[in-house]
Amino acid sequence: MSITPATDATELESGVRSYSRNWPVVFDRAVGATLYTEDGAEYLDFFAGAGTLNYGHNNPQLKKALLEYLTDDKIVHSLDMLTTARRDFLTTFAEKILRPRGLDHKVMFPGPGGANAVEAALKLARKVTGREAVVSFTNAFHGMTLGALSVTGNSMKRGGAGIPLVHATPMPYDDYFDGDVPDFMYFERLLEDAGSGLNEPAAVVVETVQGEGGMNTARIEWLQQLQELCRSHEMLLIVDDIQMGCGRTGGFFSFEEAGIVPDIITLSKSISGYGMPLALTLVRPELDVFEPGEHNGTFRGFAPAFVTGTEAINTYWSDETLQRSTADKGAVIESTLNALVAKYPDAGLVAKGRGLARGLQFEEAEKASEVCRACFERGMILETSGPLDEVAKFLPPLTITEDELGRGLSIFTDAVDAVLAQS
Hints:
Blueprint: H1 19-22, E1 27-31, E2 34-37, E3 42-45, H2 48-51, H3 60-71, H4 84-98, E4 106-108, H5 114-129, E5 134-137, H6 146-150, H7 155-159, E6 168-171, H8 185-192, E7 203-206, E8 209-210, E9 216-217, H9 220-232, E10 236-240, E11 264-267, E12 280-283, H10 303-316, H11 321-343, E13 350-354, E14 357-361, H12 366-377, E15 380-381, E16 383-385, E17 391-394, H13 402-421
Parallel strand pairs: 3-15, 5-6, 5-7, 7-10, 10-11
Antiparallel strand pairs: 1-2, 2-3, 4-12, 8-9, 11-12, 13-14, 14-17, 16-17
Helix pairs in contact: 3-10, 4-10, 11-13, 12-13
Keywords: Aminotransferase, Pyridoxal phosphate, Transferase
Pfam families: Aminotran_3
Family: Belongs to the class-III pyridoxal-phosphate-dependent aminotransferase family.
């Protein structure tokens, strides 16, 4: 078959593609919080690569470090051989992220993406404890590979596996019963009842804010109780910080506010700072029991991602400026969402989230998609989340300017007004 430049690229790509259906334009370049199409149209980006671009598109400081590295013919691919880029990332991450937070976790590079980090965490938890079962939570999302999918809640995504997803047990997330059932009563009862049929879990895996699950936010007290429950039943606590880490909720780790110390932490998305593939599985030293090469892969640390990741930490995590800015901007979004909730008391709107991970839930699920389409028509992209796509989800770059944030919120408010006025 001959292919001409005029051929529609979508004819060549698998039907599994999704985002290009929601935003049917051809993007060409991007700077900061703005995307540009090939014909020059501009779109405010309140999506940020699903949380992969916390520092914006083509961040100039990160780009400078990357170009200098590549121009000097430095190592790009090295499996897990020691390189200057790898060493610099590890020492910077330890000195500026782990140690100031009292963490002594070992850093494992499991592969290029978040699902790799989750798979390594589950595998390690089972090896350490000798148990098979892992507890996850309703509406959780941890990835699309079989192990990660087994602890994911979305039925549509689980259905794509084609085989039974086993050795995982879902439990109710915080406020799943709208406050009608005391926290952990169901989970604790099953753990303590010899007739419950629940095998002793190796670990519990949790997101402090369920991004894909609908911007559900766990309370500090719930997270603290979860850690206590894990310790009392000798279960490892795994916090999946792939989307909510790297400053998305304020602190570098989303669990910092709760004062808990997970046994295993997964990071990816914005850890490279520049949208390049990189994933980490952080493990307490006594859990670092894999034999050399027992868990491996071809892309266990992409050197250019080490370079931009190191630069991002040095630039944004040497003080609390970004953390304070994220809290302030998050409060602005929260105020706008609360105003919409008050403006439409009969629409069943709920403001959700924390930091710069925010969402507006619609009682009529289809309204969220309609609002996102209306935003796209007005020059802004944002996606939906939740089991029914009932939440319009905000994930702007943390570096978004106050003017850009204000423009985006004006677009969103206008879109909500337009959609709900038709109801």
